[in-house]
Amino acid sequence: MKKSLFVLGIAAVLFVSCGEKKKEEVKKEVETKVETVKEEVKTEVAAVDNIELGKKLFAEKTCATCHQPDAKVIGPSIKEIVKVYAEQKGNIVTFLKGEAEAIVDKDPGQVAIMKANLDGFVKDMSGDELAAVAAYMRSVK
Ligand code: HEC
User: Fold this and answer.
1) What is the pLDDT of residue 71?
2) Ramachandran sector of residue 89 (left: φ over 0; alpha: ψ -120 to 50; beta: rest)
3) Per the confidence metrics, is the pTM higher than 0.90?
4) Which long-range contacts (CB under 8 A, 24 or more apart) does 26-32 make?
5) Does the CB atom of residue 65 touch ligand 1 within 6 A?
6) Probe ligand 1: pick from 51, 55, 57, 66, max atoms within 8 Å of CB?
7) Is the minimum distance from the CB of 116 to ligand 1 under 6 angstroms?
8) C-alpha dist (Å) from residue 65 to 30, 59, 61, 71
């Protein structure tokens, strides 16, 4: 919303300062800018929605039982996972799809616990859902 106000502010200034330009031209320019900002806001809202969906899924699909934001419970903490994936340029979605090896905790016993989830119910989640879960994990601060 702030951005829209900002653009409207610019619009007002343009209307006043561009005396030379035809009003129609200026109007068009402003309309284009307003459209651009509207699109930007939409994208931002979509990103936030995605994180909200990911957060919901993370709780509903019991990921949260084994993955706390900060502390290791049964699985590594969300922050630890995100840190290792960032450092090693890994892709959380690829791992969740079962298409990549574990890189955070390679202990066979631990991997087996997580693998049981992947084979059990994670495989039924859609790519969009997995992307939302990954977006949520990365958003945990
Ligand atoms: C029963 C406990 C348990 C549940 C439930 C669980 N995990 Fe895990 N998870 C683990 C354990 C243990 C590991 C450590 C082994 C490993 O890294 O693969 C792990 C590791 C991971 C990793 C890091 C994999 C890597 O590269 O090492 C990700 C990402 C992950 N879990 C995501 C999830 C998501 C998303 C869910 C919910 C859909 C979930 N987990 C549910 C126990 C669990």
Assistant:
1) 96
2) left
3) no
4) none
5) yes
6) 66
7) no
8) 50, 8, 9, 12
User: pLDDT > 70: what percent of the chain?
Assistant: 87
Q: Residue 127 C-alpha to ligand 1 middle, in angstroms?
A: 17
| pLDDT tens digit sequence for 104-136 | 999 999 999 999 999 999 999 999 999 999 999
DSSP 98-112: T-S---S---HHHHH
- Beta bridge partners, 90, equal none
* Contact predicate 130/48, CB 8 Å: no
Residue 52 has pLDDT above 80, yes or no: yes
**Tokens found for residue 67:** 């993955």
- Strand extents, DSSP E, 1-141: none
